Amino acid sequence: MFPSTRASYKLSLMLSVFFIHTSSTFAAETPSSSAQSVSTNTPPIPTININADDVSDNPTEITPGSTILKADQLKNIVNNSPDTGALLANQMGVSLYKSGRIASLPVLNGMADDRVATTIDGMRITGDCPNHMNPALSYLNPHDVSVINIMAGISPVSLGGDSTGGTIDIQRKSPVFSKKKDKIVVKGQVSGFFHSNGKGLGASGDVTVANDHLSIRYNGGWSQSRNYHAGAGGGQVKSTQYKMFNHDVTLAYKKDNHVLSLNIGQTDTPYEGFPNAYMDMTKNQSVFINGKYKGDFDWGTVEARGYWQRVTHAMNMLGDKGGHSPTTGMPMNNLGRLAGYDIKGSIYLDDKNTLRIGNEFAYYTLNDWWPALEGSMMMGPNTYHNINNGHRNRLGTYAELETQWNHKITTLLGVRNDVVMTNTGQVSGYQGLAGMNATERAAINRFNQTDRGKTDVNFDVTALVRYKVDPHLTWETGYARKTRSPNLYERYSWGTSGMAMRMVGWFGDGNGYRGDINLKPEIANTISTSFNFHDVKQEVWELKIQPYYTYIHHYINVNYLGSASGRAGTTISNLQFANHNAQLYGVNSVGTYNVWNNKKFGKGVLRGNLNWVRGTDLTNHTNLYHMMPVNGTLSLNQYIGAWSGRIEGEFVNAKGLTDPLRREPKTPGYILLNIGTSYTWNMFRLDGSIENVMNKKYYMPMGGLSIGDLIANNQVRALPGIGRSFNVSLTASF
């Protein structure tokens, strides 16, 4: 049973800024990763919809800055990167911070992780790990991506609840059917890549066999890499190796306007180093089943989905951090299960009004236990239960009305309720002489005697208007209220010893964290306005500027509990999650210009973007953690026949505004130069690039502390970015 707490009910009317923008072509790159891409298109803005030619999924009509890109324009990203996060790089309102190399965490307008609602095929996936080493994007092969909706800050209630930073909604490729009766269609693609820095290798492919009613598709991928090297003699960056496999099969049946599909898959990561954490991932296995029905009717559409996922996760120390054996290291195990459904309908009330209604439920359980280390008095003789039979269940219901008043004005108004219920069983410790002191015994007794069941009743409202002022300007403005309840670790991590607290935390800062059962949900209020200037046909030039402001009541930050000494004279902070008030504000901008377009020289596109965000804790009067400094890119892309080329500069300002409570490192500014090219011949496509051409030594502003280097050789530094890398990939389509 989950005892009810006092319900919080607040409704706000809002107006929000978005823009609908159709761009020609653009490909995002991640210069700080080993997997880079060749730009081939003009720019998207905060919402990106990446569609394959055969995709039938249609995103909500009004979303913050909707842009539609086809999968053909993203081939070089997919083929060059095992990290799905690379698809999101260099977009308005989006930045990335690296933990593991196949586990980038996207940041939307300064907010990340659980504050961003990340779904894959309708499944809202949570990191089953006290270090969040297995985020949602780590379960998806970029090769299999069909549609991505990125909504930074403001998102329709139909596309995200229980979040404050926005929504990332990803769809795998939709089933393909033959257009002719009784004709068999066979199509597929195989690709492979190599990166010189880290000796990265990977291969992926898919094959579909279908007729006009039945379709079966297999998709698989493999990638691995050694540790990468930093630029300009920065040496090898420890704990940056990885290996990953994934497979999935989709079965689908189509009858008239109805499609029924079943997707079954597995992801296996035998190991992945985490350079900014004390631990590494030594196993992560996920198995999932996801079924979907979609029907189109005269009055609207209906979608229904049911899903299940099981994750088995283990952490310990890889060789760079000393390795592990039955008597060394520190084993940590997790078992997570997720099951749920999602039912939504769109009703065409008349020519101007569309009503969307929906209901969804997610049942999530987590066990987090640390087996005893053989012969250890500190980490033994019993099992340490960090989260014992934890539950986090969410029931969401929403209604949303979209109105096209005339050819110039469109509005969207939606309300949503999410009931979030959390609880956990009693916990226990190692009970060794050194690991079970009186303070920790008291913490266990206090935790077990506390009423741990919590029920949060959350309400969201989103309202926006889009106004086409004239053929050269589209103006959007609005306000949204979004709510997020604490995750299980924020509420129920109970350890008081320095060692136990340092095993909890997904921030890459080397500090220790403790939960608070009485945390309240975060409530974010965002106002945003957007100006989209462009030529009449939106084919030659475009400039978008988007300022925003967010105030968050009960923002989950930290309180300082004390400090301890670490390796090489470092200081470790012991922190407890706590509700504060906070604000974030900033400006995102992007622009494109077709410099030339003729038969002799093809097409040349100049693209630039510039982003700035500032976050402050209004309770502590300090800077918020993991705020990206002023950053931008400027690229020139040329397309002529079967050939395309790209030269790009990435600019990042020095990071001087840091969080003192977490002892966040400051980083100098830097400029990176990247070049790339691609050529298509019949069924083959060859991509090549040189990333960080000048082999610049730089440090990632949101990479945290390089703990792998600290443990291996007592080197204290921020996490270095990757040095020069020669990348090549070859793709064959049939």
Question: What report would you give on this structure?
Answer:
The protein is mostly beta strands and 734 residues long. 5% of the residues lie in helices and 51% in strands. It has helices at residues 75-80, 438-449, 488-492, 498-502, 707-713, and strands at 47-51, 66-70, 94-97, 105-108, 111-112, 116-120, 123-124, 145-152, 166-172, 185-195, 200-210, 214-225, 242-255, 258-272, 280-297, 300-316, 332-348, 353-370, 384-404, 409-423, 454-470, 473-484, 512-514, 522-534, 541-565, 571-598, 602-617, 622-623, 631-640, 643-652, 670-681, 684-691, 725-733. The strands form four sheets. The protein has a 22-stranded antiparallel barrel. It has a four-stranded mixed β-sheet with strand order 7-6-9-8, with no helix packed on it. A three-stranded antiparallel β-sheet has the order 3-4-5, with no helix packed on it. A hairpin with a 3-residue loop joins strand 11 (200-210) and strand 12. The protein is globular. The N and C termini lie far apart (55 Å).
Radius of gyration of CA atoms, rounded to a whole number = 25 Å
How much helix is in the residues? under 10%
Structural class: mainly beta
The CA-CA distance between the termini, in Å, is: 55 Å
Instruction: Let me know the largest β-sheet.
Output: 22 strands, antiparallel, barrel
The count of strands amounts to 33
Supply the number of helical segments: 5
Shape: globular
Q: What fraction of residues sit in β-strands?
A: over 45%
Ranges with pLDDT <50 over ≥5 residues? 1-61, 64-70
Mean pLDDT: 87
